Amino acid sequence: xxxxxxxxxxxxxxxYECPVIVGTEGERGIxxxxxxxxxxxxxxxxxFGNTAACESSITYINGEKGYLRYRGIPIExxxxxxxxxxxxxxxxxxxxxxxxxxxxFSQKVLRNANLHEGMMQFFDGGFPFxxxxxxxxxxxxxxxxxxxxxxxxxxxxQDLEHFDDAAxxxxxxxxxxxxxxxxxxxxLPMIYPKRDLGYxxxxxxxMFTEPYHEYYPHDDITKALDLILLLHADHEQNCSTxxxxxxASSGANLFASVSAGVCALxxxxxxxxxxxxxxxxxxxxxxxxxxxxxVEMAKRGETRLMGFGHRLYKTxxxxxxxxxxxxxxxLKIIKLKDPLLDIAQRLEEKARSDSYFVDxxxxxxxxxxxxxxxxxxxxxxxxxTVMFAxxxxxxxxxxxxxxxxxxxxxxTRPRQIYQGEPERKYVKxxxxxxxxxxxxxxxxxxxFGDGSSENASAKA
Length: 460
Ligand code: CMC
Known about the structure:
49% of the residues lie in helices and 7% in strands.
């Protein structure tokens, strides 16, 4: 908090002072938490574009400059030098691990790769083949907690006591559940994880190995997948993370909270955008458009250029810069000429020179190029958002912990400005339906001849 700086709000000629909170990177926020009790007024900020919901020490974003840092370390540095699992440790525990910490953490993640055999029933008729893997993922992340009742007590101290185990377990099982959901949906036999494979390699093994054919991914393919997961690992108070924090604020356990996060991520304006980007590129390709018609449609408001725009970034999303290069590299390695990459690059060029996009600061976001890499890896399109969920798991876990371990934490409960009907009377059904003239004064307890009262018949 800044001692000297104060914000003044003048209401009906009277001054009210609010403290100013200063973040470690100099961001400033006006603390209005006492405004309502002091003045009777609340603040209104739909979509929270201007509201800091909490103080957090996990991720820093400067959307104007295009900075993204996990625990202070720039994303470019981590993308170049770290792995998803090491970055997950950094995000969850706040520091890069020592060699020993890293080995213990990786072992813990590895040991938790299998699902309880009881859970296999879910994949044996528990869901229709048509079920979306995000629905399966959300349901099973919550269900997996049922097999570890000591970790899901909804008692803060007890859930926190088992946090290290629960965190490693979720990081590991989210990947197994995802792979098994894919295999179930495609009528493929389940492939179990292996003890000698790294995180991303194990995932690719569970996805693509067959009982009669072991799948060995090219090292660069494994690295590209690991990079995608690392780049998605946290992004401060986005829609799904805010959902996780909201659920956690009620005292709910980690499993329930991340399961809610998956649901929030699913939508096309958030994690679901990566699926929509590829569908958009395929549609443009099939129609023979070079992207110009689609850009014009987006400008007319008939559609959105998926993978473009961001609430925070008013310049390039730094993750998109890294992924654009990675997409070019992966396609070169597997010697694939994907016309969708050309279309994506052309779309980007068109949008970057068009005043509609320039004036609104609409740049490619993380979802614009990730789908091209995922497609090249062989990932089916309905698994794209699932990949985002696996990547975002460390962030959700860290944010749950930040909420659960805050002794001063409050349940999330925003206010609203009510704009509905003023107080009015309940109108009984027979008056609403015009069966009885509106001027007829009904006896409150009059029955309908069949012995039932009006309310009883309405209930039936
Ligand atoms: N294509 C065309 N116009 C757009 C786009 C787009 N992708 N995004 C925003 N605009 C326009 C919008 O129509 C509005 O124009 P006007 O001022 O004339 O009404 C202006 O830009 C501001 O848009 P907004 O919807 O008020 O901005 P927002 O901050 O509420 O929305 C967003 C951010 C990401 C939801 C939005 O840019 C969008 O829908 N993008 C496409 C979906 C997408 O790629 N989502 C992934 C986000 S990154 C990964 C993640 O965090 O999940």
